[in-house]
Amino acid sequence: LLSSRNAMWHLEIEKGQLEDSRKSSCQRMEARDQRLWAHAAQQLHREEEASGKAERNWQLRVRKPLHTQRELGLQHQKLVEDAQRNHQVAVKFLKASLGRMREREREEELQSREHLQQRMEAVLALKNSITANRETLRKLQAWGRARMQQAEQQAQVEQQGVRAQGRDVFKHLSHRCRRRQELEAQRRAFKEEQKLRKQEIVSRILKEEAVEENRRKRQQPPTKATTLQTLRGRARSHTSAFCEGKAPPTATRHSQPSEAAVQPMSLLMLKASSESMQTVPGATSLEEEMLSEPEILGLWNEDHRRYQVPQEDVDRKPVGGTKMDKDILARTLQQLRSGVVHKQVASGREFKGRPFNSKPECIHFKDFDVGKVYKKKITLVSTTYTLNYCKLVGVEQSLQDFIRVDFDPPGPLSAGMSCEALVTFKPAINQDLEGNVSFLAQTGGFSVPLKCSTKKCSLSLDKELICFGTHVVGQTTSRTITLTNTGALGTRFRFLPAPKACELEESQSVLKLSSPHTCEDRSLYERAAPDVSETPLEAGTSSLPDTQSQKDSEK
Description:
By secondary structure, the chain is an alpha+beta fold. The protein is built from ten helices and twelve strands. It holds the Pfam family Ig_CFAP74_1st.
């Protein structure tokens, strides 16, 4: 029993050992099967991926030509649409440009017609003015002769009255002669004053005309500007001849009247000249009329058109210019560096005039203080036909200690292009300075005026004459006057009473100038102010000097 039990126990032990080995072997087999299944699944997945990739590559190889062809078609269609769109935009802008050109041509034609009409009206107005002046001169001469006869008759009557009263005729005549000399001196002084005023008016008109001429030069072509300049020069000589009292030169049939006669300022000049004719005694009247015809026949025709540059001359050049342009540019630069100046010709026209315009036209440092630094920037605009160059020469010797100019040469400048320069002013003395900043261009030198002005005081009154008007004895009347200092420098002022003698002389002159006129005198005064303004001095018999002379004769 014990042995069997031991054998059983031994068998049980072996069975447990074998069970453990069987379990381990089963586990190993399961793990091996799992590995085999996983490897097979991975292999299958790789094969599927390879087959899918091959399929996709084949599809890409098939679709790529189709996609490329489709893109080329879309790109071509887009290019065609862009070309059509650009063509439509170009046609639109071309129509707008042509419309503007036609509008500009219509405006120029209207302006030329208006200009011609204004010239015709100016000539007719000048003719009517000359006729009116002749009639006025005849009336004034007849009136002067009648006045002389009346004065002689009055003198004879006075002499007879003096003889009838038994007084000394010689004293009466000497007193009358002295009074006439005084009146003549006053008349001469008044005439000189009127002449000075007329000269001031004419000079002011000429200055305004010069400003207008400069403005037109900037707006119009140079050839037309030179023509206007010659015509306006004739107008100035004509006006100066009138103001000096000389007979104006006879206008030939091919002479052209000044273009400034159309403007209102020129009409004022003609009126001033006609007035100066009336003031000068013995001036000959104009017997010949000025004919309004151009210097060149057909210049004022309506079908005349200005010269336009052909389209072949304005074709675009390659970027950077051709080889010939580069050679010309190199030679021009070399000549500019050496200071050589030569003429500039474009389209058969030679450029003459100022190569650059300065903005501002004058460099003016106003109201400066010693020790401070002032800076101003100027802009130089090219006005030539083709390329031009600009080089700084310097300032005058008297301004080198105070003025410094910073200017970088800009190179070639086309017409209308600009460059800038900086002018620095550091005053060391309190004194007015004037000079020029000189530049050198391809067509010649030019300069910009420079002016430095110190602080000054400028006093002015708002009234030249204090008139209290009509008042009674015992009444207190007051008037207000304003003293203004428009300058930058302060000053002190005080009122000084005028001497009584000066007050008496002023009152006498006021009485003489304010003597009554007849209706005929007033009408003549409206037509010819210079001549009739002298009449109160001659015919003012009721003024203060006459009453004093009557008292002296009674004594």
